[in-house]
Amino acid sequence: MESTESSSSKGVDKTVSVSILWFRHGLRLHDSPAFIAATSNRDHLFLPLFIFDGESAGTKIVGFNRMRFLIESLEDLNNSFSTKYGGSLTVLRGQPVDLFRKLSQKWKIAKICFEQDCEPIWKERDDGVKEFCKENGIEVVECISHTLYDPAEILSANGGNPPYTYSSFMFVASTLGKPERPLSAPNPETEAGKINFFGMTGDDDDLALCQLHFPMTPEVFGVSKEKAVGENMRKGGETEGIILLEKRLAIEKQAFEQGLMLPNHTNPDFINGASLSPHLRFGCVSVRTFYWAVQDLFSAIVSGNTTCETITGQLFWREYFYVMSVPNPNFDKMKSNPICLNIPWAKDVIAKENLKKWKAGKTGYPFIDASMRQLIEQGWLHHVARNATACFLTRNDLWISWEKGLKHFLKYLLDADWSVCAGNWLWVSSSAFENVLDCTLCICPTRYAQRLDPEAKFIKRFIPELQNYPIPYVFEPWTAPLELQNQWGCMIGKDYPAPIVNHEIVSKRNKAEMVSLQKMLAGGGLNEHPCPSNTNEARNFMWFPEICSHESSP
Ligand SMILES: Cc1cc2nc3c(=O)[nH]c(=O)nc-3n(C[C@H](O)[C@H](O)[C@H](O)COP(=O)(O)OP(=O)(O)OC[C@H]3O[C@@H](n4cnc5c(N)ncnc54)[C@H](O)[C@@H]3O)c2cc1C
């Protein structure tokens, strides 16, 4: 392929205009309106840029796995620019306004294009850059492509308020029509795809000091490898994301052909599932590309039916939590969060100890512990494992605040998304989106495990201590007679912990506590409390089949 010329910043003519594509999320070239906007002026040079500012792309609280995923995604972008368009990605470290000021002092920055980050945590950063651009006559192009809809439009279509139930959200979204179709990247074989890159040479004095070069490692940013980090199971980047998307579509296709839906829910693959959430979170795969690929596949297979509520329904949950967070900067907190109920979670010494054990995967409940260990080792947890561990920490067993769990998940999950993660924690802990503390569905950590991991492969993969325990003892190892524990090489209470709480007792007690809170809070400022539209919605959200939940009555 013919490579396009890259103009070095050193020799650049200062009268030549530069268009910047500022990456934050949206780490891809396909379906990127910001990429198209930044390359649309044929007489501008093009500078694709990522800035490590200590916060963007979730780098404020970040574990090794997610930082590695981000770096892999940037490396992939750099490779794609190089192989497809003959350019490269520039990576700088510093504060965006400072860096844009330095750039504009040297060169004529005409335009800065970026994908909208709708969550309120990014508002100050983006407002600062917009203000700087206004003062300096730089055009700003902000494109909506991280979400299926413009959250502001949803809010406005709902009379300026967030829709308090998922079904009212779905209704409002339907009034805006179908999401837009994805866009193709400029074709390098055509005129539009012949891009004149503006390349930083690396010797541009103070800017050079801010420039980072590939290869990079998380350690460069002070993020060191946690001892438990294992094999790299999910690689970041658009290239990997598209491969995964194809794999996922093949699985969905097979299910559609057999008249089934949501294969990922029916047969959870805890380790190797083709889950796209990390790639969606960083924008390596466009949500519109995913949405329309599934819709089109479904329409092609199920003739006469052009809509489907399959995994696209899950994508709407993502959308819902983004929208709910837009007008609520305290969405991730209990305090000053108008939708969150103030449940008096335990804060005593025992709670502190229990929190440590939960984080370390040492609760004595094998399914919970396997999940918590997987989180640190791989940065990944299947949805059902997230539900089980979050319920265990909060309303079911330990009665510890969801804020503690959220902080831990935000650090280690590859797909950790400020609003999506908080929204799920609010729900699971009965703090919001739940039917006013009325969740009769309680996850039993042992029965749940027996149904979802019947051969205990997942448990044994992450808890080698229980390697020799047969079924059913592996699910409740403390029930094994001492001589068998000895024979299997793992004494409970010594080699693997005894349960830190008795689930049967504490779950009943906690349910009773919820009921009394419900009575106390009734009529007292619950007007804004969002809740499910009906029991089915709650059940579907939690993926609760009848047999692994139980009515936990007071
Ligand atoms: C306590 C807790 C914390 C969570 N934190 C996050 C998070 O930080 N980031 C995140 O992307 N998901 C989060 N989830 C939601 C969900 O677990 C993951 O999106 C899902 O496991 C990803 O797997 P998948 O891609 O195979 O999902 P699929 O079932 O294939 O769904 C497709 C996509 O829909 C979206 N989605 C699916 N379920 C949900 C949901 N419940 N809420 C919002 N969006 C959803 C995701 O983008 C997902 O990739 C959390 C769930 C819980 C219970």
TrEMBL record:
<keyword id="KW-0539">Nucleus</keyword>
<dbReference type="GO" id="GO:0009881">
    <property type="term" value="F:photoreceptor activity"/>
</dbReference>
<feature type="site" description="Electron transfer via tryptophanyl radical">
    <location>
        <position position="345"/>
    </location>
</feature>
<keyword id="KW-0600">Photoreceptor protein</keyword>
<dbReference type="GO" id="GO:0071949">
    <property type="term" value="F:FAD binding"/>
</dbReference>
<dbReference type="InterPro" id="IPR005101">
    <property type="entry name" value="Cryptochr/Photolyase_FAD-bd"/>
</dbReference>
<dbReference type="GO" id="GO:0045892">
    <property type="term" value="P:negative regulation of DNA-templated transcription"/>
</dbReference>
<dbReference type="GO" id="GO:0048471">
    <property type="term" value="C:perinuclear region of cytoplasm"/>
</dbReference>
<dbReference type="Pfam" id="PF00875">
    <property type="entry name" value="DNA_photolyase"/>
</dbReference>
<comment type="similarity">
    <text>Belongs to the DNA photolyase class-1 family.</text>
</comment>
<keyword id="KW-0547">Nucleotide-binding</keyword>
<dbReference type="GO" id="GO:0005634">
    <property type="term" value="C:nucleus"/>
</dbReference>
<keyword id="KW-0090">Biological rhythms</keyword>
<keyword id="KW-0274">FAD</keyword>
<feature type="binding site">
    <location>
        <begin position="415"/>
        <end position="417"/>
    </location>
    <ligand>
        <name>FAD</name>
    </ligand>
</feature>
<dbReference type="InterPro" id="IPR006050">
    <property type="entry name" value="DNA_photolyase_N"/>
</dbReference>
<keyword id="KW-0963">Cytoplasm</keyword>
<feature type="site" description="Electron transfer via tryptophanyl radical">
    <location>
        <position position="425"/>
    </location>
</feature>
<feature type="binding site">
    <location>
        <begin position="314"/>
        <end position="321"/>
    </location>
    <ligand>
        <name>FAD</name>
    </ligand>
</feature>
<feature type="domain" description="Photolyase/cryptochrome alpha/beta">
    <location>
        <begin position="17"/>
        <end position="148"/>
    </location>
</feature>
<keyword id="KW-0285">Flavoprotein</keyword>
<dbReference type="InterPro" id="IPR002081">
    <property type="entry name" value="Cryptochrome/DNA_photolyase_1"/>
</dbReference>
<keyword id="KW-0716">Sensory transduction</keyword>
<dbReference type="GO" id="GO:0043153">
    <property type="term" value="P:entrainment of circadian clock by photoperiod"/>
</dbReference>
<dbReference type="InterPro" id="IPR036155">
    <property type="entry name" value="Crypto/Photolyase_N_sf"/>
</dbReference>
<protein>
    <recommendedName>
        <fullName>Cryptochrome-1</fullName>
    </recommendedName>
</protein>
<keyword id="KW-0157">Chromophore</keyword>
<dbReference type="InterPro" id="IPR036134">
    <property type="entry name" value="Crypto/Photolyase_FAD-like_sf"/>
</dbReference>
<feature type="site" description="Electron transfer via tryptophanyl radical">
    <location>
        <position position="402"/>
    </location>
</feature>
<dbReference type="GO" id="GO:0003677">
    <property type="term" value="F:DNA binding"/>
</dbReference>
<keyword id="KW-0678">Repressor</keyword>
<dbReference type="Pfam" id="PF03441">
    <property type="entry name" value="FAD_binding_7"/>
</dbReference>
<keyword id="KW-0675">Receptor</keyword>
<dbReference type="GO" id="GO:0032922">
    <property type="term" value="P:circadian regulation of gene expression"/>
</dbReference>
<dbReference type="InterPro" id="IPR014729">
    <property type="entry name" value="Rossmann-like_a/b/a_fold"/>
</dbReference>
